[in-house]
Amino acid sequence: MNPKSLTALFSFLAVSLGSLFFLQTAAAASVVEVSGKDLPALLGQPVAAIRVYASPDGGAAKPIPFQVDEKDAKGQWLMDGPAKTVAILDPQDVLLFHLDDAGLALQGSALPAAAARMEIAASGKFAYAVAEENPGPKSTKSYVSYQAGQDRVSTAFYDIGFSTRQALVQDVLILRNGKAQADVLDRFKVRFNLAIKNFFDFKIEEGDVEARVAGTRVGPIRVIRRVVATKKLGPINLIPKSVTDFLFYPNWVEVPTRIQNPIDGPKFLEDKTQGLSGYDFSSAIYGSVLYASQGGTATLNGVPEAAEQGLGQGAATWWSLTGPAGSLVVGIQNDGKLEALGIKPALRVIDDAKQGAPPEGETGQSLVGFDLPYHKIPKGSFLIQVKQVFPWRFEHGRETAYLEAAKSVSAEAIRAL
User: Fold this and answer.
1) Residue range 145-152: mean pLDDT, rounded
2) Fold of 3-27+157-405
């Protein structure tokens, strides 16, 4: 195997493992997302002139929080920053608002005078997107916030923070649906042992990846956080190999992860190749009950038990955790091509306060994560979707429903006024 393929492989492994675990979190479909192409009266209008109004009781229309997220011609999200030209609404852009803010149907006369007005109906509620010649004030309400200095996202459902030294490493998780309201996370871990046929074994951890926040797009409905990651192998420096967008919604998080595997695993990797990515929880999680899609339960308490090993049997599609510190559901949607090859993610649980695995802030592990048989993955491009959901009132048995509800919804009808 040549050095270029080898270093590309390490970058792929580290970034894919790191991104794999962050696609998880929600409670109900609460965000309405409308494509610019479905708002013909607003196309070409300055984004700064657009406002969204609604009325909860049929009275005066009031501004509600919304955002317009722009995409470039290739379909990539545009990050915040100085604009070279005045932003206008294009067909590929999207408008988002929270369903809870929509209200009753209104007549056009109840809305501010505007150059263009469109009625958006979703789940039996109505909101009105308008382009005003003299735009009125925006709503000051916000469902999500981003603290750039701390690299931290906060909502009413969760707080998620990342290491300021390593943008792929999450080191803060506060579940706002719990009584304790404590940080339950030691750190997100990526631990990998790569065994190359007729060559050598190589160990990698999350700290070996160079990653930085390349941009953010912050609005009152969601935050998009872009991370560029590079892998270094000894003295060999790679140029940025992976770009990953983290999408933070009020009550869930998505990270669509495109895996670009540069080599043929069955040809070059031994079956002793092992990898694990997941949350290493702190002792604040003790007493929480762990459930898995394959069945079975275990209690995280820092003491290894047979029940935890049983959770790792068979392919995993989700796991959930609930206790005094809060609840979350983590789901993984496998790539169709990998699924057809019989390559499926497995759940891994390590719960042992005496088993240290530095670097870590608290000695010992209560780690829950996913693994894939990387030695079986062929060369190619694969998409794996992971989602974190934070149900406000968790009920075991509804995990699949929580995950399915964790998505933006489309409008049922749109018309010009």
Assistant:
1) 97
2) Beta-galactosidase; Chain A, domain 5 (2.70.98)
